[in-house]
Structures are given as structure tokens and as C-alpha cells.
Specification:
It is built from 17 helices and 13 strands. With about 500 residues, it is an alpha/beta fold. It has three domains: about 220 residues, 3-Layer(aba) Sandwich (Rossmann fold), CATH 3.40.50; about 110 residues, Rossmann fold (3-Layer(aba) Sandwich), CATH 3.40.50; about 40 residues, no CATH class. Helix 7 links the parallel strand 7 and strand 8.
Length: about 500
């Protein structure tokens, strides 16, 4: 694209240079810390951190309309560093030079409108944002692109060397961490901790394929998280879980992309996300708040956080009257939405702070939380995919959550819902297979509905020779096999001769 064709006010701001003054900010004690070392919790009080640009006000020197024109113009550029989440460089990592950005094709995942039939079943206009079309097939790539770009920035400055990146995971985090770390070899190596037997075979294969050292730990994600927290406190490692504030920063791109996809008209949107470790919903809220503060959008959309009844600590917190709330972790039960099977979300302090800020800025309640059954998660996932989508179990959780939000009038038929399909459906195909075969364990509390079961039909014409690998049929034997098979298929499909 020839930049000379663009107005100068856009042209001069199209290719961003490092700017801003970023620091870690403690939500509890308010202390700020230098970003040129890896921090995950406050050295003074131990609370989780957020990243803050203390020079954020400079972004208001450009009006909202011009920002929209800048972002829209960047869509046409071929510069790799601006093709991913760093299209919104000034809002995500303004201090990072473009040459340090790690871009593997993440971000700008498609927003797909549901079929008319599925929208009629759902009860409102509905879109899926297919974050499973990121490089490692999940939304976690957004945060990893940010975290590893920051590490690459420190490596280039000589402030780090021989990095060992570690994370606990229910599957998607480990795949993303291993992929992005592998890109920076040999400067970065990866070790991941997974709960034994609670990660799909597809998800387990990903970090192994990227060369990460994989450890399977007895228990659940929360147990793995405690171990990596000890590692990050005692040893010189880079923690890549959402406790890492750079991860949250990258995931803010999800909200920026939604705003852009809807031409920055967000007043009637309802953005539905699974809660899990609470990093994603934290990022989504913070992203929309930044866009509101700079005039890029003029209204905050509704945010609907969804949890399974098998892992619902955030819902329980917000179901308690405001003056009596006290967060308590829960013991989780097995969930088909495995990434949501977290009883003690690391980002809960961020959620509490940002929910209050979000509702205050909106002037009314705009953040809601609902819980859904495992049965509805599976049934709605299968229903969505039968209508042309590639929703994972968490995408099914979002559609089930939308139904609950509509029933409770948190969302109305006049709203436009945007649902997060956090990962590719193929990552969770094992749950679909178990549903179809009626083999889900009782602990999931899911009963396979006959109308949703779909199994292959074996065609084996009797009394005929059948083709075998390396032994093809020929002549009359082949003709008889083809004719008999065609008639059997036609009978199964109730076809009529033309």
C-alpha cells in the first residue's frame, strides 16, 4: 500500500515508534515497579499486578475518529508486526519496538454470524468469534504474542539470557507457550505442567511437538499452578500463566478487534466469555475501558462471564450481596470445558477491581455472571457445530451462558451477542466422541441425547468379495460391490430414483 495516498494525520501515526512509560501497578497497595525485570506479584504485599502506561493521557491527543481511521488503515499494511495484535500497538505494548514483536499469525480471528436457524433458537442476533483459528488453535496466542514479544525485547536489550519459560495449563496455555517459545530458540526453552489425565490427547501433543519439557502432575490445574508459582518465586524462570500481566495485555486485543469488527458501535453488544482463570474477562473489560477513555467507542458493551456449575467461584462471589462478598475458592468437579475447571482463579483480584470500574464508567451494571450445567455446555456446542460453526466446549459454554443471560433479562433480543469460541473444536473432539458413544463418565452429569448423536454407518454388502488394502477388486467383483454399496447407501438416505 502506498502511504502517500493516506491523509497526513493518519500517515504520520501509521507506523508506531516506541513510546509511553509502562510500569507494573499493584492493585492492593498501589505501588508501581519498573518493567525491566519480570514481576508477577507485588514485592511489597504479594498481590497480582497490572500493567499501566503512566503516559496514557498522550493517546487522547488523537481524537477517537482519527484512531479509528489509523486502525482501519493498518488493516491494509503488509508489515508483519502490525498484522497481529500489535495493530493496536499504542494500547498493548507501546514501549516495544516493532522489530522485537513476535508475530506467528495470531489475532484478527473471524467474527462469524450464526445461521438464521441458530439465531432463532438462541433468541437474539448472534456471532461467534473464532479464536480457535489462532496459530496454536486457541485464544491464548494473543497473550503469548505479548509475553514473548516482551521477553524478546528484554533479550535484545541484554537484560535477559537463557530463558526458561514455565506454565501450568489445562492444555491451551501449554500449547501456546511452547509454540511461541520455540520460535525464540535457543534463547528460550519451555517447561509445562499439566494435570495428569485431564488434558485431551490433542492438547498434550501440541507442547510435545513444539519441543517443550512436559510434566504430568496428579490433581487439577490449581495444583499445577501452585507448583509453578513456587518455581517462579525460587528460581530464575519466566512464568507464562495469566499471573503474568503481559499475558493480560495481549488478550486485550480481543476487545479491540470486536470493536473494529462492528465499526466501533458497541452500545448494543453483549460479549460472552468463559471465565476460567479469569484472565480473559479481565483483559476484555480493560480493553473496552481503554477504548472508551480515548473516545474510540462511545459506550461500553455488556460483558457476560460464564462458569460451569462444576467450577463456579466467581458466580458464587457475585451472587452474594455486595456488602457481604468474600471470595472463596471452590473444589472443582470434572468439566467438559476443561480450561474452565479452575476453582481459584489467579486473576480474581483483577476481576473485582475492573468489574467495579466498568460498571461505574458505564453508569449502570454492564458486567454479569451466570453459571450453566455440563449438559447444556455439551448440547449447545453440538448444536452450534451442527449449524456451521467450529465451537469448542467453551464455545458451547458461551452459548449456554447466553441462553441463561436471556432468560434472566441480562441480555435482550435487541442485543447483538458475540460469543467466544476460545479454541478449535478439534482440540475437544474426544468429548464429542464420548457423547456420541454414551461414554462420558457419570461425574460429568451429561446424558447423551439421541437427536444429537451422530455415528458412522458401516457399509458391508453381504455375500460379496470386499476390497482390502493392497487387494483391490476388479472386473465383475468390483461392479457388484459398487452396485450393492450404492443401493445400501441410497436406502439409508431414503433416496428416490430420478
Amino acid at each position: 500500500m502506498n502511504l502517500e495516498y493516506l491523509p497526513r494525520k493518519i500517515r504520520d501515526n501509521l507506523i508506531p515508534a516506541p513510546a509511553g512509560n509502562m510500569c507494573y501497578y499493584c492493585l492492593e497497595c498501589g505501588q508501581r515497579f519498573d518493567i525491566h525485570r519480570l514481576l508477577y506479584t507485588c514485592p511489597d504485599c504479594g498481590q497480582v499486578l497490572m500493567l499501566e502506561d503512566t503516559d496514557f493521557q498522550r493517546l487522547k491527543n488523537i481524537d477517537g475518529k482519527t484512531w479509528r481511521e489509523i486502525f482501519d488503515a493498518r488493516q491494509m499494511l503488509k508489515l508483519p508486526a502490525l498484522r497481529g495484535i500489535y495493530r493496536f500497538h499504542e494500547f498493548i505494548g507501546p514501549i516495544i519496538p516493532l522489530e522485537a514483536v513476535v508475530y506467528l499469525g495470531e489475532g484478527h480471528t473471524p467474527v462469524i454470524e450464526a445461521s438464521s436457524q441458530l439465531q432463532a433458537m438462541a433468541g437474539c442476533r448472534l456471532f461467534y468469534k473464532n479464536d480457535g483459528q489462532n496459530p496454536s488453535a486457541s485464544f491464548k496466542d494473543r497473550g503469548m504474542a505479548s509475553a514473548l514479544s516482551y521477553i524478546n525485547y528484554l533479550l535484545r536489550q541484554g537484560k535477559m539470557e537463557n530463558v526458561l519459560a514455565v506454565c501450568a495449563s489445562t492444555g491451551d496455555t501449554s500449547a501456546a507457550a511452547a509454540l511461541y517459545s520455540a520460535y525464540l530458540q535457543p534463547a528460550v526453552r519451555t517447561a509445562v505442567l499439566l494435570p495428569e489425565g485431564k488434558v485431551t490427547s490433542q492438547q498434550l501433543a501440541q507442547p510435545l511437538g513444539s519441543g517443550a519439557k512436559v510434566f504430568e502432575i496428579p490433581g487439577v490445574f490449581d495444583d499445577c499452578m501452585k507448583i509453578v508459582e513456587v518455581l517462579s518465586e525460587r528460581y530464575n524462570v519466566a512464568l507464562l500463566n495469566s499471573k503474568n500481566a503481559w499475558r493480560i495485555l495481549g488478550q486485550e486485543s480481543y476487545s479491540y478487534e470486536i470493536a473494529q469488527a462492528f465499526d466501533y458501535r458497541t452500545a448494543d453488544l453483549a460479549v460472552v466469555v468463559p471465565v476460567g482463570n479469569a484472565g480473559n474477562i479481565t483483559a476484555v473489560m480493560n480493553g473496552f475501558l481503554k477504548f472508551l477513555e480515548t473516545g474510540i467507542i462511545d459506550a461500553l458493551p455488556k460483558i457476560i462471564g460464564v462458569q460451569s456449575m462444576h467450577a463456579d467461584p466467581v458466580v458464587r462471589y457475585y451472587n452474594t450481596p455486595a456488602g457481604k462478598r468474600k471470595f472463596k475458592p471452590v473444589t472443582v468437579k470434572p468439566s467438559v470445558a476443561q480450561a474452565a475447571m479452575i476453582g481459584n482463579p489467579v486473576s480474581m483480584p483483577r476481576v473485582i477491581r475492573l468489574v467495579d470500574k466498568y460498571n461505574d464508567m458505564a453508569g449502570r451494571q454492564r458486567v454479569f455472571f451466570v453459571e450453566v450445567t455440563e449438559q447444556k455446555i455439551m448440547d449447545w456446542q453440538l448444536t452450534a457445530n451442527r449449524h456451521g460453526h467450529i465451537a469448542c466446549t467453551h464455545g458451547g459454554e458461551c452459548l449456554a451462558g447466553l441462553q441463561e443471560a436471556l432468560a434472566r433479562a441480562m441480555v435482550t433480543e435487541d442485543d447483538t451477542a458475540v460469543l467466544d469460541s476460545t479454541a478449535h473444536a478439534l482440540k475437544f473432539v474426544g468429548f464429542q466422541d464420548m457423547y456420541f458413544q454414551g461414554q462420558l463418565q457419570r461425574s460429568f452429569n451429561v446424558v447423551s441425547k439421541p437427536e444429537l448423536i451422530n455415528l458412522p454407518v458401516k457399509i458391508r454388502p453381504g455375500g460379496l468379495k470386499l476390497p482390502q488394502p493392497g487387494e483391490p477388486l476388479t472386473g465383475r467383483d468390483l461392479e457388484r460391490f459398487v452396485q450393492a454399496s450404492a443401493e445400501t447407501v441410497a436406502l439409508q438416505l431414503n433416496l428416490k430414483k430420478g
